[in-house]
Amino acid sequence: VPWLPRSPLQDKDGNTLSDEDISAEADTFMFEGHDTTASGLAWLLYNLARHPQHQERCRQEVRELLKGRDVEEIEWEDLSRLPFTTMCIKESLRLHPPVTAVSRCCTEDIALRDGRVIPKGIICLMSIYGTHHNPDVWPEPQVYNPLRFSLENSQGRSPLAFIPFSAGPRNCIGQNFAMAELKVVAALTVARFTIRLDAGRPPRRKPELILRAEDGLWLLLEPLPEVA
């Protein structure tokens, strides 16, 4: 950018970043900001298609929020006034987390309940998918139930029970933006279309670095009569 000073990029300690360092940062932003959000959106629309009653409730919530405004006129402030749609998004991220696992290096010894100790310096693989499907924390974990995330039902639940963006100092830097993207796309889609399953092409989960579906995730979108 010509109007910015031409100084070398540096990390927080003032060390100059190499081309490889800059490339790694760019790869991280592309991976975290695109692949993951696309996976989250696909599975969200799939879950709304599987549960038309929840889809319709989202649609009514969006219509009530806009109150005659065109759907393109949704504002940033509107996104905090979609509580049920937000619950649907969170439950979809629980059931189908875009990133299924992360690794972390222990910075200190960690004592487990059974007395064993994970030594400092050990790299642990943390299963986000497994955490989100733990029946001790999430009864009937395979059931899509957005009301798990109501204020009442969230009381007393550990914040580490739901970690689609990881947790702690190394959590996802873009999680608030990602949630905003999910809310906007969900609102714009349900306001314009009915989302249905493609019965001839059911999805099969394909856990890679990102949770995908083999051969894609196929849905049918039908324009709503009033906006057709």
Automatic annotation (TrEMBL):
UniProt: heme binding residues: 172
Superkingdom assignment: Eukaryota
UniProt GO molecular function: heme binding; iron ion binding; monooxygenase activity; oxidoreductase activity, acting on paired donors, with incorporation or reduction of molecular oxygen
UniProt keyword terms in alphabetical order: Heme, Iron, Metal-binding, Monooxygenase, Oxidoreductase
Pfam hit, one: p450
Cross-referenced Gene3D superfamilies: Cytochrome P450 (1.10.630.10)
Cofactor(s) named in the record: heme
Keyword Metal-binding carried by entry: yes
InterPro entries: Cyt_P450 (IPR001128), Cyt_P450_CS (IPR017972), Cyt_P450_E_grp-IV (IPR002403), Cyt_P450_sf (IPR036396), Cytochrome_P450_Monoox (IPR050196)
Family: Belongs to the cytochrome P450 family.
Protein name: Leukotriene-B4 omega-hydroxylase 3
Taxonomic source organism: Eudyptes chrysocome
